[in-house]
Amino acid sequence: MRKQSKRRAAEAKGRPRRPKGSGTAYFFEPRQLWVCAAELARGSDGKRRRRLVYGKTKVEAEAKLADLKARQGGSLQPVNQARVADYMAPWLTSVSKRVRPKTAASYDWAWSHAKPLIGGVRLDRFDRATVLELFAELSRAGASANTIRHVSRVMQTALQDAIADGAYSGLNPFSLVQKQKPKHKTERGRALSVAECLRFIEAARADRLEAAWLLGLTAGLRIGEMFGLQWADVDFAGKTIFVQRQALFVDGKLLIDELKTADSLRLLAIEEPALSALERRKAAADNEKPSSWVFPSANPKNPMNPNNARRRNFADVCAAAKIEGNLTPHDLRHSMNSLANAVGVSEKDRSERLGHADSKITRTTYTHTIDGQARDAAKKIGELLRSS
Q1: CA-CA distance, 124 to 83, in Å (whole number)?
Q2: Domain spanning 84-177: which CATH class is it, in words?
Q3: The pTM of the whole model exceeds 0.85
Q4: For 125, 243, 256, 369, which has the most beta carbons within 10 A of its beta carbon?
């Protein structure tokens, strides 16, 4: 006579059958916990596989197993032993092929902050509490609000891709805390006073990169846009410059890249004192090795490294002008906006000058004119600086 299985024996005694897939529950004496074990499909090696969940009571263990099944779409999956770092390494390599180099570098930078804190966490155990702890640890380490937000954005993107790849199941834990802003005060850019602007202009006169700094102060150029300028972009007769590229150094490599946004592509009116500074720069360039770049490096085929210009030339000009605090080239954009606002330039015209406008300047090659309002904005800024 065939031996009855435990299940059939239980039925014979009148006990109800356990629901299929509900797992086996038993008390684990060493840990004083109830264990609920569910059978999975055998592995490729033919070995038996199970998922175990624990609870202080049998009901709690069974509830956890049911919840796990629900979160995995109704069928249990084998435990994913992969750590966050195991997923991030190939993900960063993959994403670097579909974003701009500077963006890829910023992803690497964000991960360098997060890796020591969450790199060893198992993906299947990465949850909302882990995210909150990450933010808390970054804050305790002195990370700025911008750093924490950037880490959050990058990791949320990575986890969303992990969900799509099947490497992570459940809701994206970063999306669950997205609205909880880190408790850090956001630092705003600094704007120079008119008196500081005048001292800065005077001090810049002795610097080889005078024209670059004055374009930042009066035209609102980003530092990459300053050093991305070529002589073909400068129209002395029309008193305009065409901003269409930026020079970047990422991981020690020179990159000539597109502008930050489509709205950054713009034709700008140039008036005094930037116009005279550009003319002096052209006169000096005529006596240097021929270069298409307005601000070339020692190798005339390449523009100057913006990072070197910031550390050396810009710092020296600020010191000579007795500018207190840590002024950056980007703060010249804030100063331009402040100056333009002081003389009544409209928000729309200021936005267009900074490259934040909704209306884009056409990219066709026949556009060589600039409207009266934009010209008036450039004049007003120059007049304010000359009359002070």
Answers
A1: 8
A2: mainly alpha
A3: no
A4: 243
